[in-house]
Amino acid sequence: MKTGRRLLTTTAVAVVCAITVLAAPGAAFAAPTPPPPPAPAPSASADVAPSKDLEAVRKKLDGLYRAAAVATEEYNAAEEKAEQQSTEIARLAKKIAEGRKRLDELKDRAGAAAASQYRGGGLPPEAHLMLSDDPQEFLVGAGRIRQGQHATKGLLSETRRAQEDLEQYAQDAGTQLRKLESGRKAKAKAQRKIEKQIAAAEKIESELEQEEKERLAELERRAAEKAQSAWLDSGVLDGVGAQATEQGRKAVAYATAQIGKPYEWGAEGPKTYDCSGLTSQAWKAGGQGIPRTSQEQWKRLTRVAVAEMRPGDLVIYFKDASHVGMYVGDGAIVHAPRPGRTITIAGAGSMPILGVVRPDPNTGEADNKNESDEGDKSSENGKDGRKTGAN
């Protein structure tokens, strides 16, 4: 039936186009000739082929942008490590400076002790005591000798430790510098991959006619709707209605306030964001620091079942955890999709879900208990009691 409707639509469009051309002002007409045989009706394949071609384009673009997303998270991870290594190098440099100062002080003390011995005629303290005529002075001096020997040993030990610490700090700093250089190379490599994938995608899109771009956008919308409907029909959200925590509400409020701002790979705001830049900054605004990349968010944050998620939780997508969005309630997420798009609300099931993670796992029970009265009013928002995080 659908093929038949498409056939009729195509035929009707062809007829309308023909009438428009014949009715155009100033059209010249040749001498009457026998009418040509009627053109065969468009076949089903002629109608479907462009859709199939655009579907292939859609999948190609999706693959390119997915590859760019993976490279973006590689870039973000390298950048985060570089920042950590730079901080560590700065800390070690401070330790090295302090160690050198301490070593200089110890050397000055050792030099002062050597000078004192030189001023005493070069004789060791024991010789001076043996030459003393006063027994009391001898006994007092013996105690001082022992103290001096202990002090000298302590000075030498402390000097040795300071020297060893200084050498260790220098070695650690060298290691961090090598890691930093390696990280910079990884970052540059990821950047090249991102730019290559995005350039290839943009080239494909630039070759499309405006009508094709519109049809492509419609195909993308339908694919997302189909995936979301299948996800909802599975009953995965049955019973989901947990309220957001105070931190979760703040995170959702921040994320939704960015709707309409452009996606930009590697960006963390305030004017542009990538997917994990949006979620990490949103939770920072909520008072909770979380990892920068979607992969680290998946690895290090507490995982929860989809059926237990609440607004503010992060939904991680694809097997490689290369995309992330923030759940806002009612089966929806807010996310930064890809280059050329803006931050938007989308169906949480419109992409393949890897899992859900929770940045604030230890605050839910207390917050929900404090809001029990508010929860009793959930029936005003719908029979299933679901609420969006913006509420």
Automatic annotation (TrEMBL):
> Region Disordered: what ranges?
352-391
UniProt domain NlpC/P60: residue ranges: 245-369
Q: Which UniProt keywords apply?
A: Coiled coil, Hydrolase, Protease, Signal, Thiol protease
Q: Name one Pfam family in it.
A: NLPC_P60
The positions making up the signal sequence are: 1-30
Q: Which InterPro entries match?
A: NLP_P60_dom, Papain-like_cys_pep_sf, PG_Endopeptidase_C40
Where along the sequence do coiled-coil regions lie?
61-109, 187-229
Matching entries from Gene3D superfamilies are given as: endopeptidase domain like (from Nostoc punctiforme) (3.90.1720.10)
- What PROSITE patterns does UniProt report for this protein, alphabetically? NLPC_P60 (PS51935)
Specify residue ranges for compositional bias: Basic and acidic residues: 366-391
What family is it from? Belongs to the peptidase C40 family.
Q: What is this protein called?
A: NlpC/P60 family protein
Record the organism: Streptomyces cathayae
